[in-house]
């Protein structure tokens, strides 16, 4: 049982505004069943989790914990390996702060990361004397496992890379890097912000120890939700970002006995409706079929890449589709990315992102200031993509330079 594109479109109220939404790498619109799941919390069992014994509190707790199971199913994990966060950034910070890394421990990351997978490590470098090594050299922004291998030394504790680049669209060899990390006894954190929900992702196959992901992108979940997968034998090694109410067994004035993971990461009142919505969103994308989503995004991307046939348009990243996600980053010569994005919006209500996409080192490496970026999801239509291709061609012809 899959859901057709028309059915999914009918479920997304935001699309009725007539927008051609090609900014899915930033965040995705929310389908009605996900909104309804959140509404049902407010309407029917609007209580806090984990504490009360009354029926509304019990139901809220059950639904909240059920979301852990649904998230786990999407990435091939166990429910007890899922920690809820407010976004990918928080999940990455949780690993960076929580591992107890100290002076001279080494972290290896890549030149092509989102700032959210760079700044948390820079902070450790500044505050704790952790050594940060950054590798990456390819013009297509593809990672080479050999460069990571060369950077590993006896002080290396962690490798962290993205799975799919939000800036360029490259798909990285995470399974090979995962194997390398295991061979050398180094931890591996994957930033899966652009892959979870967009393509099949299996944490066991990748062999990573941690995976940070958003609820509000590929999974079509609510904004303000995300999660961290932490492998069951590594989760206890992580210190929670927050401590306080809701996670204690017993408290004295100077000490406290806390609950086990993953609930130990839920101090304070969490985003209960959001997490319940995230659980429903996981069911929703699994109903479509994540392999179907991947297949369709690839076809839409193939069509988007036609803009590269125009000599005034430059598309960045891998040429072949097999190393690409549903993100196309481009420039029209003679125009700034912001000019291109504004024109697409004004002329045809086409929403694309422009700028450095929170990946400035990537663009310094490419010697450009930024790009315009179109990114798809399952619900985008072939006709929308054709319109985008046509308009980029027209703008390039009218206003671009050779
Ligand atoms: N990493 C990557 C690769 C991303 O694309 C993004 C979002 N653009 C992030 C991290 C940050 O995600 P969030 O907004 O969920 O914190």
What would you say this structure looks like, in words?
The chain is of the alpha/beta class and 402 residues long. The protein has helices spanning 5-11, 32-44, 55-75, 88-98, 119-128, 145-151, 174-184, 203-206, 272-288, 290-304, 337-348, 360-365, 382-399; strands at 20-21, 82-85, 106-110, 131-135, 156-162, 187-191, 210-214, 226-230, 248-251, 256-258, 313-315, 327-332, 350-351, 353-355, 371-375. The chain folds into 2 domains: 5-30 and 289-399, Alpha-Beta Complex (Aspartate Aminotransferase, domain 1), CATH 3.90.1150.10; 33-287, Type I PLP-dependent aspartate aminotransferase-like (Major domain) (Aspartate Aminotransferase, domain 2), CATH 3.40.640.10. It contains 13 helices and 15 strands. It has a 7-stranded mixed beta sheet with strand order 2-8-7-6-5-3-4, with helices on both faces. A 4-stranded antiparallel beta sheet has the order 11-12-15-14, covered by helices on one side. A two-stranded parallel ribbon has the order 1-13. Helix 2 packs antiparallel against helix 9. The longest helix has 21 residues, at 55-75. The model has no long low-confidence stretch (mean pLDDT 97). Bound molecules: 4'-deoxy-4'-aminopyridoxal-5'-phosphate.
């Amino acid at each position: 049982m899959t859901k057709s594109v028309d059915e999914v479109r009918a479920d997304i109220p935001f699309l009725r505004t007539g927008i051609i939404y090609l900014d899915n790498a930033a965040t995705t619109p929310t389908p009605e069943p996900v909104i309804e799941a959140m509404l049902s919390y407010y309407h029917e069992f609007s209580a806090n989790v984990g504490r009360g014994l009354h029926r509304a509190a019990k139901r809220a707790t059950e639904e909240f914990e059920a979301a852990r199971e649904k998230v786990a199913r999407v990435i091939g994990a166990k429910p007890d390996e899922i920690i809820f966060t407010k976004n990918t950034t928080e999940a990455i910070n949780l690993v960076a702060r929580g591992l107890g890394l100290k002076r001279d421990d080494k972290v290896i990351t890549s030149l092509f990361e989102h700032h959210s997978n760079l700044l948390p490590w820079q902070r450790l470098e500044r505050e704790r004397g952790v050594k940060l090594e950054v590798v990456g050299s390819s013009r297509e922004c593809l990672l080479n496992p050999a460069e990571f291998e060369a950077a590993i030394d006896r002080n290396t504790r962690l490798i962290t890379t993205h799975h799919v680049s939000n800036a360029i669209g490259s798909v990285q060899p995470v399974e090979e890097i995962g194997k390398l990390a295991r061979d050398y006894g180094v931890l591996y954190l994957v930033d899966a912000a652009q892959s979870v929900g967009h393509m099949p992702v299996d944490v066991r196959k990748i062999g990573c120890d941690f995976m940070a992901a958003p609820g509000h992108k590929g999974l079509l979940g609510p904004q303000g939700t995300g999660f961290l997968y932490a492998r069951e034998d590594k989760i206890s090694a992580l210190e929670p970002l927050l401590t306080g109410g809701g996670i204690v067994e017993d408290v004295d004035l100077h000490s406290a006995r806390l609950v086990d993971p993953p609930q130990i990461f839920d101090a304070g009142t969490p985003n209960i409706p959001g997490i319940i919505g995230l659980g429903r969103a996981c069911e929703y994308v699994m109903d479509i079929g994540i392999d179907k989503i991947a297949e369709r995004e690839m076809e839409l991307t193939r069509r988007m890449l036609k803009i590269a046939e125009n000599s005034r348009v430059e598309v960045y990243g891998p040429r072949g589709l097999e190393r690409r996600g549903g993100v196309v980053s481009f420039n029209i010569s003679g125009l700034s990315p912001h000019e291109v994005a504004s024109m697409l919006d004004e002329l045809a209500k086409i929403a694309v992102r422009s700028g450095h996409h929170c990946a400035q080192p990537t663009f310094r490496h490419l010697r450009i200031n930024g790009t315009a970026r179109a990114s798809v999801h399952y619900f985008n239509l072939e006709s929308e993509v054709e319109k985008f291709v046509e308009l980029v061609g027209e703008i390039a012809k009218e206003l671009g330079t050779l």
